[in-house]
Specification:
This protein is α/β, with parallel strands linked by helices. The protein has 7 helices and 6 strands, in the order βααβαβααβααββ. β5 and β6 form a beta hairpin.
């Protein structure tokens, strides 16, 4: 199947640089809603048969224009939520952000037992994400869109996609409404066709300086 992992649009927490990971999370900004609407220009040409989003409202708001276009109901799944920041929740200082990013990419490198301070281990995060991806693959949809979050998409891709290394996922940004496009299935594995790090709606809605810490590059120490 073709699996399109899309990061949500911009939120006020992104603009402030905060590690905002708890439910329900911040709403989309005006620009974030524009980014969501612009997804139609690119993904509207895809033969989308299923749309999933996390339990954080920003992903559901981002998915809404696509769901309306295709006449689909967005399927909301808790397993797609952002990686919990635990003790780092709503912090924005450089040290906290680096700890968060270094932890998620340790998982992509196979160190799944590492725990986010006060939060989840890599095993817990990957298990819940794998469950929803398996559901999407088993739905019979030839193409599915999963609207999720920057950190969990990048970390999961590093750990589960055969041609995405931890170093690549760490250094390659994933701006708001950027996407990672995969083909495959849980049984045979996943292969990346494209990593669209910039907003799919084009440069007019691509604002990396205010996209928040989840999409930022980091030097991964493996």
């Amino acid at each position: 199947m073709r699996l399109i992992l899309v990061r949500h649009g911009q939120t006020s927490s992104n603009v402030g640089g905060f590690l905002d990971t708890e439910r329900p999370g911040a709403d989309l900004t005006g620009l974030g809603r524009e980014q969501a609407a612009k997804l139609i220009d690119v993904l509207g040409r895809e033969p989308i048969e299923a749309i999933y989003a996390s339990t954080l409202v920003r992903t559901q708001q981002t998915a809404a224009p696509l769901a309306e276009l295709f006449g689909l109901q967005t399927q909301v799944r808790d397993g797609l939520r952002e990686i919990s920041a635990g003790e780092l929740e709503m912090l924005s200082d450089e040290a906290s952000i680096r700890t968060y990013l270094e932890t998620i990419f340790a998982w992509g490198a196979g160190k799944l037992e590492v725990r986010m301070p006060g939060g989840e281990t890599g095993t817990e995060v990957f298990d819940r994400y794998d469950e929803v991806i398996a559901e999407a693959a088993g739905s019979g949809a030839g193409t599915a869109v999963v609207v999720s979050h920057g950190a969990v998409i990048r970390s999961w891709a590093a750990g589960r996609v055969d041609n995405i290394t931890t170093d690549y996922a760490g250094w390659r940004p994933l701006n708001n409404t950027g996407a990672v496009i995969l083909e495959g299935d849980p049984g045979t594995g996943w292969h990346a066709l494209d990593w669209e790090g910039e907003a799919l709606g084009g440069p007019g809605v691509d604002t990396p300086a205010t996209d928040g810490p989840a999409g930022e590059p980091v030097d991964v120490d493996q």
